[in-house]
Specification:
about 80 residues, mainly alpha, 2 helices, elongated
């Protein structure tokens, strides 16, 4: 596996963790409030979303880079 491919894979895991951590916290808090069992609900949401997010980021990040380059008139 090339260094660039390794970088992209690790990036997908790290970016997924950061985004899912923040977003599931916010959405869980908005949906149920600060209740007993909040952390359990949040971690369950995190686990489900993380499993979905990593492959989505892995496969869509190159497209997002190209689209961003086109929008800004820059090479990707």
């Amino acid at each position: 596996m090339s260094q660039q491919r390794k970088f992209h894979l690790v990036f997908s895991f790290v970016m997924g963790a950061i985004m899912v951590f923040i977003m599931t916290f916010i959405i869980t808090l908005a949906n149920v409030g600060w209740i007993d069992g909040f952390v359990r609900l949040w971690l369950r949401a995190f686990a489900i979303a993380y499993v979905a997010a990593v492959p989505i980021i892995f496969f869509l990040a190159p497209f997002a880079r190209k689209l961003t380059g086109k929008i800004l008139g820059m090479p990707a």
